[in-house]
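Both lines are quoted verbatim for reference:

——
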Amino acid sequence: MGINIENIEMKNILKIKNRTTFLLLLIPIISFAQLEIPEGYSLVTESPANGKKIEQVFLDFDADGLEDTAVLVENTSEFSAYKFILYVSSHKKSYEVDLVNLQEMSVYPTQIKTKNNVVEFGYFEEGTGAFGRFIKLRFRPKTNQAQVIGYDVIYRSLPTVHIAKSYNLVTGKYIVKKTIYDENGNDNVQEFAGKNDVLKNKVFIENWSTAMIENLDKVGSNYESDIELQNHKKKIQSYKSTLGEDISEMNFYVKKIYRKDNLTFVDIDIIQIKYTDEGGDRIILNENLKIRTYMIDDTTIIYGPDCERITSKKLTEIEKSVLDDTSIIVIGSSKDGVLESINFGCYG
């Protein structure tokens, strides 16, 4: 029986094809394996800021023809511990950036973006200011470094003032956009432009730090708060003499929640709670019928009936439901006419 040359050649072709397919499948695995994820950290797949999917980003960041990788990772065993990691193929190294909140509260990362080999990552900080930071990186061949070329921040400086600032660290130019809202929801937009060369072409991924963030925040800050802030403080001061006294612990009924001069006020009726004997019936005493007024501001800790921490704006939205429930005994404390805390029945 003769040897079928065509069959042998076909088998060899299939072997080569299968081997090639395996190698092609292996390449992205090897490429991604270069990225170093710290021990205890895992990939973030969904943004806690907007609930949308967060994906790994692949790009030729350093223009060497090889794939680079950018990811977000989280250590769930630590408090709000997020990192942005960028693997640069020409350096054969992963660079890590901690997502820092200067107030030591929770952070909420957003999606990584890339365009023309510029990569951007960002996050929001917990708090009433809704502070957001967004950092743009581009490879700088001249120094062989990952350079921070843009730094944008957005936040609410006052209940009626929103700030958006964009700083170009290549040109040194920055823009501050201030939006001021009035009682009717109308807005007045003011825009200021300036230049600051102190940090121009001097911020890189290697020297990114909390101190650097603080320095960047100062750029253009002279435009961020001026007469509106002074007027806001004067409004608060004008009400101080009419507000209630300091009480470290109090139980009360809330009689009214309302807004005035872009401030939130609460009228309360203080009560006393006593018990007939140890473990006995609860007695509620309301011997002083004086209604006291307190202010709620951005420093007030507010817990709703479902134990969720809420803002003063949210409180005014649920005003009807909390006032309709006359069984709610509210607890709180006050200082200088402002409620330090107000808790609508979340006693656990």
Residues 241-343 form one domain.
